[in-house]
Amino acid sequence: MSDSYPKSRQPLILRYHRMLEVFSKSNDVRDFYLDKVEGFLVYFDLDKGEEELNIAEEELKSHPDRYCSIPKLTYYETRKFMEGFVTEKVYDIDTKEKLLEIIGARGARENFLEFVYDNLTELDKWQQYYQERSRVRIIEWLRDNEVVFVFEEDLDLPLGTMEKLKEHKFSARVSKDVSSARDVLDAKSKTYYSSDALNPRPKRGRPPKQQAKLEVEPEFSGDFFTTIPSALRPFVFSPDYSSAAAMFSSRFDSEEKLLASMKGSSEKPVDMKLHKLSQRLESLKQISDSLKTVDVSDAGDSLSSKDISEETEKGGLSSLLQGVIPKRKPKKTLKERALESKEKMKEVTKIKSFRKKK
User: What is the rounded distance in angstroms from the CA atom of residue 311 to the CA atom of residue 318?
Assistant: First the structure.
């Protein structure tokens, strides 16, 4: 790198979830760049004005040693991701055959995602697998470009100390706490250049018990960039943390869009509780309308809505329906039931005996 750029006194502090997002979204119409001086990301957004795009393009071309272009995910790498997951993580034979069929067909990337999101038993395994394999790919790319870095997610430092490190990255003289924190950064950055970083060993021993996952949003320190050229300020890419940052898809920007496409609609999902409540209210309305049009044939006249309202004010619907609902017949006594059964009995002629009398 040219000596005209300010030199950082410590490894670059990068956010892994941002690197994962740009590696997932980089395609033929989206260009991302990493600044090797401060570590900020640039998104060459084609929706900007033509004048802004020309100025930004000139800045990127005039400093090729400062900005590294984020590589696109090739068809071979995409297929390798999917086939590796099916081979290593999928154990059900039917699911494995279905996924291999999807991988060999057209639109495999998005169809693969939709199938995995629809199959909850494989979703957690896929997300973990994609995170692990993408981490290796990103570390390998940073090593090839000779970037000395650490991931902020891997550091266990107070937020105040982290912000001081970012603010004084070019300072030669710093306070004691910042100096000791720099030693932590240097030690951590060396682990990314070890052989274990590209070939992580599987964990040995009994797997932990399955427990409910608690998704806690991690806290990050603020960004401090002091050398961003004015031409690239509108193109700085600094999204907030998202658990679904890695979508493995260039078509869907977020998990919500993917789920909406699976349902066949881009509308927001309807709350089922509200939907059931509206159905009950509709049924009550229909019952109310039917009561207003009840024809009381036994009484010989019909009840109008005015009568219903008047009766409701007096004594409620119970008094109104007294003439409509037939009264229950009183129970008969044991003597009355015996008489009825006697009347219903049939008289049978007596059978004559044909025996001869001696």
Answer: 9
